From TrEMBL:
Residues 26-45 bind DNA. Residues 3-63 form the HTH tetR-type domain. Keywords: DNA-binding. Pfam families: TetR_C_31, TetR_N. This is Transcriptional regulator, TetR family protein. It comes from Streptomyces purpureus. The keyword DNA-binding applies. One of its GO terms (molecular function) is DNA binding.
Length: 186
């Protein structure tokens, strides 16, 4: 199946942002990354804000698909060790290759969303199968406020991913993830 032109441009914008940061995100750079003639990006996204909005929508779309797949492909964790292993594996996938590039773009957009509320609205956490697996596990363990603890646990794991990106690492501290899971269960 061929991607439509807007999707191709949004994916190219993610690449440009991941590789060069927000300053590198220009219509011309996206045209080049997509391998399209100059002016194509501006024909579809007239302003930089429109381009950034399309980029964020595409990131969220791809992230949601990834989280749905992660929650659907593996069996529900039977214990804290299995949940920890699943969170570590997911975090590692966000630190290498395509996952790393999307993570870099995601965090750049998160910072930009402080100044552009429309981006913050698009990036707001959403329900997905991956999140439901964590919440259901915590609820099954009798944890009070499983939803709140799920949000906190996933935010903390996300923080570990961010720290590794900034420090240049490609692996998360599995022991730290285990301590976060234990804290969520306490």
């Amino acid at each position: 199946m061929t991607k439509d032109r807007r999707t191709v441009l949004a994916d190219a914008a993610v690449e440009v942002l991941a590789d060069g940061g927000l300053r590198a995100l220009t219509h011309r750079a996206v045209d080049a990354a997509a391998g399209l003639p100059a002016g194509t990006t501006s024909a579809y996204f007239r302003t930089r804000a429109a381009l950034l909005t399309a980029l964020v929508r595409r990131l969220v779309e791809r992230d949601q698909a990834e989280l749905e797949a992660a929650g659907s492909q593996a069996p529900a964790p039977a214990d804290a060790a299995e949940l920890t292993a699943a969170l570590v594996a997911f975090s590692r996938a966000r630190l290498v290759g395509e996952g790393r590039r999307r993570s870099l773009a995601r965090y750049a957009c998160a910072v930009e969303s402080v100044h552009q509320p429309v981006l913050r609205e698009i990036m707001a956490p959403r329900e997905n199968r991956g999140r439901a697996v964590v919440r259901d596990f915590l609820a099954g363990q009798g944890v009070p406020d499983a939803e709140g603890r799920t949000v906190t646990l996933l935010a903390c794991v996300d923080g570990l991913v961010f720290e590794r990106l900034v420090a240049g690492g490609e692996d998360v501290d599995a022991e730290a993830v285990g301590r976060l899971v234990d804290a969520a269960l306490a």
